[in-house]
């Protein structure tokens, strides 16, 4: 699948041999992988990075896997999580699923089985995100629930602001001229004497970018606006 090369997986595993075995195998299968050995680092990376899947060991030093998952879900992050555990207890499986895990794999397991589970979860998540969720960096726009969040925190937008952001995210990385924005969002011909687009964009930028180190909404002088991660980030 052509999207696989862009899929990012975070592995949180405190057994060095197991973690490196998984990382190397998934890289060879065509995925981008990060590996960390404890729950605190795993939570930090999951909150900061844009991951399509987290492979999470339950028994970790410091924060355990359940606590990491609970923290992710409490912050509104819905990336899929595959639990790994050495304990084949019904109670453990139920607890993980109730906290929001997508699947559960008991050690020891074959890499082929793990890879099959990973592909199933990613196919399901990819199909869902294509149809209902737009995502750029840590910015998410849920088309069904009409909700926007940045780094897991809810962002309240007006209907016009939502439509403007949706257009920018659907065509992220592309510089959109004011005439296109006017016709798509306001259903009007662009009038150079009006500053309605500039005002709306300014308000949207405050809501989306203020307080975040990475500024996603950018003005391209003489051309228009673009939503993308700056090249120097």
TrEMBL record:
Signal sequence region: none
GO biological process, one term: regulation of DNA-templated transcription
UniProt xrefs under Gene3D superfamilies: 3.40.50.2300, 6.10.250.690, Winged helix-like DNA-binding domain superfamily/Winged helix DNA-binding domain
Keywords: Cadmium, DNA-binding, Phosphoprotein, Transcription, Transcription regulation, Two-component regulatory system
DNA-binding interval(s): 131-229
Keyword Phosphoprotein annotated: yes
InterPro entries (alphabetical): CheY-like_superfamily, CusR-like, OmpR/PhoB-type_DNA-bd, Sig_transdc_resp-reg_C-effctor, Sig_transdc_resp-reg_receiver, WalR-like, WH-like_DNA-bd_sf
Name of the protein in its database record: Two-component system, OmpR family, copper resistance phosphate regulon response regulator CusR
Segments forming domain Response regulatory: 8-122
OmpR/PhoB-type domain residues: 131-229
Superkingdom assignment: Bacteria
CDD domains: REC_OmpR_CusR-like (cd19935), trans_reg_C (cd00383)
GO MF term (any one): transcription cis-regulatory region binding
GO cellular component, as recorded: cytosol; protein-DNA complex
SUPFAM superfamilies linked to this entry: C-terminal effector domain of the bipartite response regulators, CheY-like
Residue numbers bearing the 4-aspartylphosphate modification: 57
Pfam families per record: Response_reg (PF00072), Trans_reg_C (PF00486)
């Amino acid at each position: 699948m052509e999207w696989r090369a862009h899929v990012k997986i975070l592995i949180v595993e405190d057994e060095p041999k197991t973690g490196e075995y998984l990382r190397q195998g998934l890289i060879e299968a065509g995925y981008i992988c990060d590996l960390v050995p404890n729950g605190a680092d795993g939570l930090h990376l999951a909150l900061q990075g844009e991951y399509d899947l987290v492979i999470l060991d339950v028994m970790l030093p410091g924060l355990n896997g359940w606590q990491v998952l609970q923290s992710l879900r409490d912050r509104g992050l819905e990336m899929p999580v595959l639990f790994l555990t050495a304990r084949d207890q019904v109670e453990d499986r139920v607890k993980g699923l109730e906290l929001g895990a997508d699947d559960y794999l008991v050690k020891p397991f074959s890499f082929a089985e793990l890879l099959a589970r990973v592909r199933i979860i990613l196919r399901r998540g990819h199909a869902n995100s294509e149809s209902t969720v737009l995502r750029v960096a840590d910015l998410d726009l849920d088309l069904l629930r009409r909700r926007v969040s940045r780094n897991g925190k809810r962002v309240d937008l007006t209907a016009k602001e939502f439509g403007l952001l949706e257009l920018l995210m659907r065509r992220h990385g592309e510089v959109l001229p004011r005439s296109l924005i006017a016709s798509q969002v306001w259903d009007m011909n662009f009038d150079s004497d009006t500053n309605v687009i500039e005002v709306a964009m300014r308000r949207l930028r405050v809501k989306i970018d203020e307080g975040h180190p990475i500024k996603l909404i950018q003005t391209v002088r003489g051309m228009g606006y673009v939503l993308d991660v700056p090249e120097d980030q």
